[in-house]
Specification:
Blueprint (H helix, E strand, L loop, with lengths): L5 H10 L4 H18 L5 H14 L8 H19 L4 H6 L1 H16 L4 H13 L3 H14 L4 H13 L3 H35 L7
C-alpha cells in the first residue's frame, strides 16, 4: 500500500495532539516514510516519531528498521549539533550525540563492511567538529570508489566547513576529470563494437 502524503499524515497526527503514543505504530511509520519520500528536511519529526518507533516498535518495522536507524541517526546528529547551538565539546556529551553513537554502533555491527555506514561514521566526526577525521574517512571511501557521490558531497562540505573553498573546487574538478576519462573510455569501446555489431547483422534480401 502506498504511503499517504506527509501533509495528510501530519494532519491526522495533529488530531491526536502530535503524541506518538496516541498516534500509534502505523501513523508514526507513515510520518517517517512520508518525510523520507518527500525528501523533507524535518529532523524534528524524524526524532519524535522515528525515535518513538525505534524505542517501542523496532521489531515491528521488520526490514525497514535499518533505514529508520539511519534516518533517526542523521536527525540526531543535526539536532544535536545545530538545534541547541552547543559548542563541539558539549556536542560530544549531549543526549542526542550519545543516542547517535548507540545507533551507529548498531548499524556498524549489522553492516561492518558497508561504505554507507562508513559515511555515516564520517558524519559523526563532522558533528563532533573532528573535520580532519571526517575528511580522511571520505577520502578513503572515494579511494575505494571514485564515483561514491555521497562521499564526494560530504568531502566538499567538509572542505567548505574548514574554510578551504579552493580544496572543495579541486575535489570537484578531480571528480569531473575522472568521470570524463571513464566516459571517454566507454565511448571508445562502444565505437569499437559498432563495426562488429554491423558485421554480425544478417543481410536483408531485396
Amino acid at each position: 500500500m502506498a504511503t499517504p502524503p506527509l501533509a495528510e499524515s501530519l494532519a491526522l497526527a495533529k488530531s491526536y495532539g502530535n503524541e506518538p503514543s496516541k498516534c500509534g505504530f502505523e501513523l508514526c511509520r507513515h510520518i517517517l516514510l512520508g518525510v523520507r519520500d518527500a525528501r523533507a528536511h524535518r529532523p524534528d519529526l524524524v526524532l519524535k516519531f522515528g525515535g518513538y518507533l525505534l524505542k517501542h516498535h523496532a521489531s515491528s518495522l521488520s526490514h525497514e528498521v535499518w533505514a529508520a536507524y539511519e534516518q533517526v541517526y542523521i536527525a540526531l546528529l543535526e539536532h544535536g549539533r545545530y538545534a541547541t547551538r552547543r559548542t563541539p565539546t558539549d556536542d560530544a556529551d549531549s543526549a542526542e550525540m550519545r543516542a547517535a553513537q548507540e545507533y551507529i554502533t548498531v548499524l556498524s555491527a549489522q553492516f561492518p563492511d558497508s561504505s554507507r555506514v562508513k559515511r555515516l561514521e564520517g558524519m559523526m566526526c563532522e558533528a563532533k567538529g573532528e573535520l580532519n577525521s571526517a575528511a580522511d574517512e571520505y577520502h578513503a571511501l572515494r579511494r575505494e570508489d571514485a564515483f561514491n557521490i555521497s562521499a564526494l558531497k560530504r568531502q566538499v562540505a567538509v572542505a567548505r566547513s574548514r574554510g578551504k573553498p579552493a580544496e572543495a573546487v579541486e575535489i570537484l574538478a578531480e571528480h569531473v576529470a575522472t568521470f570524463t576519462q571513464v566516459k571517454g573510455g566507454v565511448q571508445k569501446s562502444l565505437r569499437a563494437l559498432e563495426p562488429m555489431s554491423l558485421r554480425g547483422k544478417p543481410q536483408t534480401k531485396t
